[in-house]
Amino acid sequence: MKNPEAQQDVSVSQRIRVMFYVMKPSETSFQTLEEVPDYVRKATPFFISLMLLELVVGWIRKGKPPGGLDDALTSMSAGIVSQLPRLFYRSIELTSYVYIWENYRLISLPWDSPWTWYLTFLGVDFGYYWFHRMAHEVNIMWAGHQTHHSSEGYNLSTALRQSVLQIYTSWIFYSPLALFIPPSVYAVHLQFNLLYQFWIHTEVIDNLGPLELILNTPSHHRVHHGRNRYCIDKNFAGTLIIWDRIFGTFEAENEKVVYGLTHPINTFEPFKVQVEGKEVPFTSSASQLLKIYVLVQFTLILAFYEETFADKAVLSQVSLLLRVCFIILTLTSIGFLLDQRPKAAVLETLRCLVFLGLCRAGHLKPCFSSLSFALECKRCGFDPWVRKIQESGNPLQYSCLGNPKDKGAWKAIVHGVTKSWTGLSN
User: Fold this and answer.
1) Are 34 and 186 in contact (CB under 8 A)?
2) Percent of the chain residues past pLDDT 90, beyond the cut
3) Which residue has the higher pLDDT, 169 or 403?
4) Which has the minimum average pLDDT: 7-21, 125-139, 407-421?
5) CA gap 76, 298 in Å, rounded
6) Which function does this protein serve (predicted)?
7) Rg of the chain over CA atoms, in angstroms?
8) CB 221 within 8 A of CB 229
């Protein structure tokens, strides 16, 4: 067995290969659950890189991007929201599995055997097929899974549009494996099965020839995401399409696929995307300037999300909770801005003030700490205060946070931000 600390080191080669399930048992077998790397989080830079590559290739081939910015940001926001519970506790897919393993296992297969590795590969993929099929056929499960199908586009960002709810039912379909498969082996393949499904969410790849007979491919999965009559409830595979062929749910791509729910949700707000469900394509009416701002804010919150996961071991529960609330508030505000909601400017004003408060309390660490308050005031259109701040060298001395009873300062900030946002929205 290798050193547990060394197991957390995942090479660049492995981070790329893991997204295509091109891994060897010898490099991904671990004795304990604690040794298993967080492959999904480590793959985040490659999610972004492949999405940018898809953007370039799509633009070259078709003269336009493979999807809208608003839809892509909404998909990635849903992905972030779905991962936030992991900051506080281990996934129920693992906790339930470990409980069954420790109390009811029948036999213990060797964790370092290639046969165990390949058997788990088949078992997890088989379990995923039945979970995925039931998520479409059982209403209460569909309520969680519909999030993933709510995009009216089909590109790599769509793969990140995950539900925060579906793990509370998916564990049932994997639990029989806990009777004989060690948790560490299961945890590896659970991540690999999920990561494999990222690259098949694209229209850039057409047909993969003989591989179409065995593997789930972009062509097969496009059918699954279609709302055409011939696409409904077809191709539930995770990695291997053979399960659909065996159980009669396979359908080949034979006409242009129209994506999304049969009753589209028509919103970019992340919480509505998680729970909701006019037959017209929906795009944001926000101005280009506002979309640029939203993109910048999303990039910053994505970096903050990554930093939070990286530092969760040293952060207090209070800090984690406040950071999660701020992430959710930011994503919600972004959705309001893209939806052009009447209260979007007010919510964004509140978000700016919460940001300042969390910085003052030490729960957030701005990239440019000495300029953070000045930048917020500048963004709010509050130039006189910026000059005072620059002269004083103490951002908090002239802030309403330094003097919470200064109602005039609070009113000025609220007025400045709201006025600024009203201008951006037009």
Assistant:
1) no
2) 62
3) 169
4) 407-421
5) 9
6) Glyceryl-ether monooxygenase that cleaves the O-alkyl bond of ether lipids. Ether lipids are essential components of brain membranes.
7) 24
8) no
